[in-house]
Specification:
Strand content of chain B: under 5%
CATH architecture of chain B: Orthogonal Bundle
Helix content of chain B: over 70%
Shape of chain B: elongated
Strand content of chain A: under 5%
Structural class of chain B: mainly alpha
CATH topology of the largest domain in chain A: Four Helix Bundle (Hemerythrin (Met), subunit A)
Number of strands of chain A: 0
Largest sheet of chain A: none
Helix content of chain A: over 70%
Structural class of chain A: mainly alpha
Order of helices and strands of chain B: HHH
CATH architecture of the largest domain in chain A: Up-down Bundle
Number of strands of chain B: 0
CATH topology of chain B: Helix Hairpins
Distance between the termini of chain B: 60 Å
Largest interface: A-B, 86 and 74 residues
CATH class of the largest domain in chain A: Mainly Alpha
Largest sheet of chain B: none
Radius of gyration of chain A: 21 Å
Order of helices and strands of chain A: HHHHHHH
Radius of gyration of chain B: 17 Å
Oligomer: heterodimer
Number of helices of chain B: 3
């Protein structure tokens, strides 16, 4: 039963990732990316990471994807000659040649596949994984072992916030 | 549950390759950004698959939490830069920004 759900999520994730690759419309790609991120969140749940799945949905789907869609909208070159209010707005991307992309990505995938199939990971073979809630452990770890990275991440987010606002608004004064 | 953890690694590898193909293939700057997000997600999947067997310290899950934080910051900055590039060049197709070539 769990395996069926797992394979469904894998198909869902990889299928929508391939759709991002194959579609030419940037807005459709953003929506397929939404499906991919949701599928990855489902895989996180199946890997026993409940807190990470929720934060994946909140950060990526609720934050990054909305930013990306705003970016697509704001950088859309309005073609005044073609604009017709009855037509859908196609925001298209051009493709480079397929050869190099397939060569590099296929090559990397075959290398990774061989390494993963042949490799014998000691950690993955030791005992059954436990499926308890990870929230308590993550909270405790963030406040003890990972306190300094946690604080630095807060400062980084503040810097990114101020930097993004400054960069995006800087040409208004001209 | 009886999911083989190695399958998560294979899914992560496939997702990483698809993200890499998107980065190489597409000419729209925001599509390249989407490819990078996909690659980061694939890495997170790997980290979490390993962290499943480490319930005491959960190092993989915490690392992927920090990866997510940095990815969010990166996406915000990158979109701000893309917005500025669009104002300057009036395009976001990467191949049309060839001022240095001229």
């Amino acid at each position: 039963m769990v395996q069926i759900v797992f394979y469904l999520f894998v198909l869902f994730t990889l299928g929508s990732a391939l759709a991002v690759l194959l579609t030419k419309n940037v807005l459709y790609a953003a929506f397929f990316l939404l499906l991919t991120l949701l599928g990855v969140a489902g895989l996180f749940v199946l890997a026993g990471a409940d807190f990470l799945a929720v934060s994946q949905i909140m950060i990526y789907v609720g934050g990054v994807l909305v930013l990306i869609i705003f970016g697509v909208m704001l950088t859309h070159k309005t073609d005044t000659a073609k604009t017709d209010y009855t037509e859908p707005n196609f925001i298209l991307t051009k493709h480079r040649s397929w050869l190099w992309a397939l060569l590099v990505a296929g090559g990397i995938f075959s290398v990774l596949y061989r390494a993963l199939v042949r490799g014998n990971f000691v950690l993955l073979n030791q005992g059954e994984p436990s499926y308890r809630s990870t929230v308590g452990t993550i909270g405790r770890q963030l406040m003890t072992e990972y306190l300094i990275p946690f604080e630095i991440a807060g400062v980084l987010l503040l810097v990114a916030l101020i930097g993004a606002t400054t960069i995006a608004a800087s040409s208004r004064t001209k | 549950m009886e999911i083989n953890s190695g399958l998560f690694l294979l899914v992560g590898a496939a997702l990483f390759s698809i993200g890499l193909a998107i980065v190489i293939l597409k000419r729209h700057a925001i599509m390249v950004l989407m490819g990078i997000e996909l690659m980061l997600n694939a890495v997170n999947l790997n980290l979490i698959a390993f962290s499943q067997h480490d319930p005491v310290r959960l190092q993989g899950q915490l690392f992927s939490l920090f990866v997510m934080i940095v990815a969010a910051a990166e996406a915000a900055i990158a979109l701000a830069i893309i917005l500025q590039v669009y104002r300057h060049f009036n395009t976001v197709q990467l191949d049309e920004m060839n001022e240095l070539k001229k």
